[in-house]
Amino acid sequence: MRFLLLLVGVCAAGQSWPDYGGGPDAAQYSPLTQINRSNVAKLQRAWTYPTGDSNKYFFNPLMVDGTLYVMAKGNSIVALDAATGKEKWAFSPGSDIKVITNRGLNYWESKDRKERRLLYCANHRLRALDVLTGKAVPGFDVNLKEGLDRDPATISLVQSTTPGRVFEDLLILGSATNQGYGSAPGDIRAFDVRTGKLVWQFHTVPRPGEFGYDTWPKDAWKTVGGANVWGEMSLDVKRGILYAPTASAKYNFYGADRAGSNLFSDSLLALDARTGKRIWHFQMVHHDIWDYDDATAPKLITVQHEGKTIDAVAQVTKQGFIWVFNRVTGEPLWPIEERPVPKTDMPNEKTWPTQPFPTKPPPFARQKFTVDDLSPYLSPEDRAKFRDDILSARNEGLFTPPGTRNTIQMPGNNGGANWSGAAVEPGRGMLYVVSKDLPAMLKLEPEGTAKSGFNDSVEQRGQSLYQVHCLNCHKADRRGAPPAMPGLDDIAVRMPREKIVNAIRQGVGPMPGYPKLKDTEVDELIAYLYNPARARATVPAGSSWADAEKYLSGFGFMIASDGLSPIKPPWSSLTAYDLNEGTIRWKIPLGDVPHLAAKGIKNTGSHYPKVGPVVTAGGILFAGTRDRVVRALDVDSGATLWETEVDAALEGMPAIYSVNGKQYVVFCAAAQVGLTPGTQVKIPGAYVAFALP
Question: Most CB atoms closer than 10 Å: which of 37, 263, 442, 585?
């Protein structure tokens, strides 16, 4: 305990950046003041460290004792001199790595500092490095697929790409389950940092006798997965409380097999960090069928509320809401109303009749999308198409239930706030949140497995994957919406297999990547792309898709032919909240789209961002965006005080620290995005450090 308090004290002093997000509280805040409003315009490059490849990185570096830890060189963990960027050592987890903790790492050291470890996950295993030598800790190798009350051989995905949280001698981990039916359980687990032994486990889908079991069908825990923490968690170290925001239960968009409110999906959990026991919880979405995961770390903040000083926790969401609670009791600071929401028309589905709405603060994202909201930059053809799509769709707000008719989602299942998307000034009561407006259109179609008589062929499994991940953009006939979403039959004919694999893993233009698909799933999807006729031929004559019991929808991102969102800008924005009053202080578009900016069209907000802001006591908010620009903004007004261009796009958050009395801001500029939508140019990435002359 003494060590952890020491580590937190070092972080509070602002010299180090010892954990993902700056510290266990995930504040994304630095108390350093050397760089401030008066001199930030003088920032210049201090050093650059190339990643050594063209992989996509959005890594948040760690800095302890003058050493910066980054990810580069084919997912290697690299130690750099934090003042010069000179490489000290590099460790490669292996050439067979398919999924790795690539957003950040966890650092731990013993009380006497003789043991110091970096903790990471790769290929669904928890591993550790000796910080002093850069070598693997012998015998430390935990199979994360074990201990989940499922056959490990049936679990395709369980490891998150987000790091966990270190508390005393524990590493607390969430997980990233796959998106389909029968995915892995989303249990939160704590492991001993020395031995890897499991210390405690919290079931997010409760077992018999556990609180919340009656919010599910009997024995749902045996088959239903998800309700996982694939994003970020926070720790109140002084009180020993873990704050964990959970995701939706699986399957995301159809819940006939999980009638009930489904605790603890879409909930903010306050757990005893030493034992995993529940202290309090609040569920933001009952019986989620919209994929409204909570991915951003809960923000620990102290506010002045109704004449009292309150230690609070604030949770931002995909829907654009901010929920603020007393950190200890779970009592909301402002009233929350349960309001009636639209009913489903899907067979066997039982949606929850009401959903909670915070009365304060006001939302930071747009929560509707109508024809009046169409972008002025759409082509005439796109405008006509999207107008028809919107007018023919069911469109009744945030909680329009998906069905076999198109339904509109706004700000979308990939919109609102996402991982690393908020920062706080803990003592001032200020919160800053980045929002993405990306409307989606969902449409459920029968899975068509058992009752339709399909053979369990490779192509059929590939077709099921296509329905989940690809259908809403590339369409059932695979013709897409060229040029932004091209037809896939032509691609399958002319594109080599390795390029298809790369597109699926890393994404192309407006298409997101799917790095979490396991190798066999990629093989099955490609088999379907190369040979769709065979999969279709397995449907027996006279059978009907309507006979199927399960339904699937793509994520349905609405993308115009130029690769941009069809809603009018801004496509991303930064909103500053005063949580003492529950009010918005200011709001600005964040970033630009380069090819529009070149035409003089600015303040659109960058498109498709995952931006992690970091705030300092010097009155500065730092952020890097996908338009290849890093910015320093005034926390009181949002005004740009300094900006400069780097070589590649940016996602995630910078690290801020001090070495030998000099303050540095380090960005990972390696998101590998071309400047024009649809381009596939790979740009070598780099870590870029800025400091005063």
Answer: 442
| Token duo for residue 569 | 């800008």
Tell me if the pTM is above 0.85: yes
> Please, what is the angle between helix 497-506 and helix 519-530, to 10°?
120
Range(s) within the chain of domains with CATH label 2.140.10.10: 2-442+562-691
Q: Which two tokens stand for residue 48?
A: 């650059």
Q: What gap in Å lies between CA 66 and CA 85, rounded to an integer?
A: 11
> CATH code for 445-552?
1.10.760.10
Going by CATH, does the domain composed of 2-442+562-691 fall within 3.40.50.720?
Answer: no
Among 545, 533, 539, which residue's Cα sits nearest to residue 453? 539
Cα–Cα dist 541/543, whole Å: 6
Question: Are residues 448 and 548 in contact, defined by beta-carbon separation less than 8 angstroms?
Answer: yes
Q: What is the pLDDT of residues 211-224, one digit of tens each?
A: 999 999 999 999 99
Per-residue tokens: 466: 């296509």
Share of the chain above pLDDT 70, in %: 85
User: How confident is the model over 188-210, as pLDDT tens digits?
Assistant: 999 999 999 999 999 999 999 99
User: Token match 């600015």: residue?
Assistant: 602
The residue assigned the tokens 């706030």 is: 417
* Whether 483 contacts 561, CB under 8 Å: yes
Q: Quick one: average pLDDT of 593-609?
A: 92
CATH 1.10.760.10 residue window(s) in the chain: 445-552
